[in-house]
Amino acid sequence: MFCLQIFIGSLILICSTFCQNCERNPNNASMCTFSGIQRSMQMDELTDSNPDEIKRIKFVNSFINRIPIKLTEIYKNLVDLDVSNSLVCVLRDQYFKGGKLQKLNASGNVISYLESNINNVLQNLEVLDLSRNRIQVLEDNVFYYFTKLKYLNLSHNEIKKLPANFTSYTDNVNVLDLGNNQISSLAGDFSSKNSRSNAVNLSNNLLVSIDPMSFKNLFRLNINFNKLEKIINFQGTNIKELLICGNSLQLLIINKQLVILDVSYNNGNSLEIDFGSESALECLKLSNLKLFDYTDILANISKLNNLMHLDLSMSNLTTFDFDNNMLPKSIKVLNLMNTQLKVLKNFKNILTAAPNLKEIILNGNFLKDKELWDISKKFGINVTGLEITDETITEEIKTKTILFSDHNIIIIVAVSMNILLFIINLYLTATLHA
Ligand SMILES: *[C@@H]1O[C@H](CO)[C@@H](O)[C@H](O)[C@H]1NC(C)=O
Ligand SMILES: *[C@@H]1O[C@H](CO)[C@@H](O)[C@H](O)[C@H]1NC(C)=O
Ligand SMILES: *[C@@H]1O[C@H](CO)[C@@H](O)[C@H](O)[C@H]1NC(C)=O
Ligand SMILES: *[C@@H]1O[C@H](CO)[C@@H](O)[C@H](O)[C@H]1NC(C)=O
Ligand SMILES: *[C@@H]1O[C@H](CO)[C@@H](O)[C@H](O)[C@H]1NC(C)=O
Ligand SMILES: *[C@@H]1O[C@H](CO)[C@@H](O)[C@H](O)[C@H]1NC(C)=O
Ligand SMILES: *[C@@H]1O[C@H](CO)[C@@H](O)[C@H](O)[C@H]1NC(C)=O
Ligand SMILES: *[C@@H]1O[C@H](CO)[C@@H](O)[C@H](O)[C@H]1NC(C)=O
Question: Where are the transmembrane segments (predicted)?
Fold first, then answer.
């Protein structure tokens, strides 16, 4: 019996390395995992007793260099294929013939080229993740039939140029990630047809200029770390969130619908932002700016009637005057972490300056003012980063108490010594007299 168990055990062990059985998910019979496939040869021998049931296949810890040729013929109902983190170098139409694939994840492979004929067989695709590959060339009509595509991730590739008519073929794509490529120019309208959460990421590319109108109806645009300079005008667009860090802007003109703006790490020493009138801005991040002069930009910020969160951390701001650098009354959180601040002027007027302030972050400054602590306690503002804290105050009290009790002991000892000396004295006097 024992022998038989060992025998069956080793058979299972051998089988799992050679037969490539589909490992059913115990909670979901339609999901199947193939693990540890090291060679392409093994792949065309994928087996399963009931392939029609399988909707989702995932390869884990595998180093396959191509997708098994008959995969979609064997698994006719496959809708979701995950071949991420393998060594696949090309996507061919014959892999997907007759398939109904809706989601394909080929992230983290070594694909360098996308042939235009794959779009004939991937017409049902809604999610395509090709991030972290080596794609350099996208053939002109490669996305022609991808009419159902909603999510397209092409980030972390080597794309220099988008194919002609790219934006008209990707009209339904709500989430488009083109970050970390080498794109230097754009054409077409990137807004998708029908979404309120439409997001485009073009961060870490080589864009020198953009036409904001090509993002007219986006919800979120991330264009961080490009080479944008001079003047950019977003007026007339409906963008709600704009991330435009790490460029060399001189003048940014925003649209009134904008709610979140991040302009951190812009490396010019003068930056002007025209917020227009009646701006909806609630969150403004100006972290890591090194401006020659903050006077005018702070004056413009003071007019933002809806602003709740202002981040000026890591800037080279040296003073902040609560009387003169008027904050909008709506402000709730002020982040002044790691600045060059040595003094917060007129902090005692904070309640008039910013009646809604809940938190002020002051870590990494040169401020040690006990007055700040007292005032913030008084008004219930959360001050983080001051050297004085509740604990230091308690420590102070404790130290005093200890000193006091030491003192007590000394008094007690001194008094007792005196009494003792008095008794000795009495005794000595008595014996001497006797
Ligand atoms: C099984 O997995 C599929 C995805 O392949 C999913 O659509 C379905 O909801 C899952 N069913 C259960 C019961 O979790
Ligand atoms: C694709 O796979 C990678 C790695 O397994 C994962 O991080 C990523 O979220 C997946 N993409 C999608 C769209 O599910
Ligand atoms: C795209 O893929 C990259 C790398 O896999 C990932 O970091 C990023 O979050 C993805 N983008 C979106 C919008 O999901
Ligand atoms: C782009 O679209 C126009 C019409 O909208 C068409 O004339 C042209 O051939 C297309 N170009 C490519 C390369 O598909
Ligand atoms: C692009 O931006 C989106 C949201 O702003 C984010 O989820 C995604 O991870 C970013 N992708 C890269 C490659 O940074
Ligand atoms: C302040 O706003 C005005 C327009 O309201 C703009 O012309 C000017 O450049 C802005 N200044 C700064 C320093 O942002
Ligand atoms: C802040 O940095 C800029 C650029 O390096 C410099 O021109 C300016 O003088 C600095 N201001 C202060 C107060 O250090
Ligand atoms: C104060 O702010 C810090 C940092 O944001 C947070 O961890 C802490 O919970 C806040 N304390 C109170 C009393 O709000």
Answer: 409-428
Instruction: Kindly tell me if the per-residue pLDDT of 172 is higher than 80.
Output: yes
On whether residue 15 sits in a domain, the answer given is: no
Residue 73's domain spans which residues?
A: 28-111
Which residues' Cβ are closer than 6 Å to ligand 1? 28, 30-31, 55-56, 80
Distance 57 CA to ligand 2 centre (A): 13
User: Residue 293: CB within 6 Å of ligand 7?
Assistant: no
Instruction: Write the residue with the smallest CA distance to atom 10 of ligand 7.
Output: 292
From ligand 6's centre to the CA of 272, what distance in Å? Answer: 6
- Distance of alpha carbon 113 from alpha carbon 134, whole angstroms: 8
- For 114-147, give one letter per residue: b (16+ CB within 10 A) or e: bebebbebbbbbbbbbbbbbebeebbeebbbbbe
Q: Residue 397: which pLDDT band, with cuts at 50, 70 and 90?
A: very low
Taking only the tens place, the pLDDT of each residue in 292-321 is: 888 899 999 999 999 999 999 999 888 888
Q: Are residues 99 and 156 in the same domain?
A: no
Ligand 1 centre to CA of 30 (Å) is: 7
Residue 232 lies in a domain: no
245 part of a folded domain: no
* Ligand number with the minimum distance to the CA of 143: 4
Whether residue 209 is found in the same domain as residue 290: no
Q: Is the CB of 274 under 6 A from ligand 6?
A: yes
Q: In the predicted model, what is the mean pLDDT of residues 404-424?
A: 56
Ligand nearest to the CA of 129: 2
The response to whether residue 249 sits with its C-beta less than 6 Å from ligand 6 reads: no
- In single-letter form, the type of residue at position 424 comes to I
Cα torsion angle, 173, 217, 159, 153, sign: negative
Confidence of residue 249 (pLDDT cuts 50, 70, 90): very high
What is the total count of domains within the chain? 4
296 and 381 assigned to the same domain: yes
Which atom of ligand 6 is nearest the CA belonging to 251? 9
User: Is any atom of ligand 7 closer than 6 Å to the C-beta of 269?
Assistant: yes
Strands 333-335 and 359-361: parallel
* Residues 283, 301: Cα–Cα separation, whole Å: 11
Do the domain assignments include residue 233?
no
Q: Provide the CATH number for the domain around residue 221.
A: 3.80.10.10
Ligand 5 centroid, distance to 177 Cα (angstroms): 7
Quick one: CA torsion of 104, 108, 110, 116, rounded to 10 degrees? 30
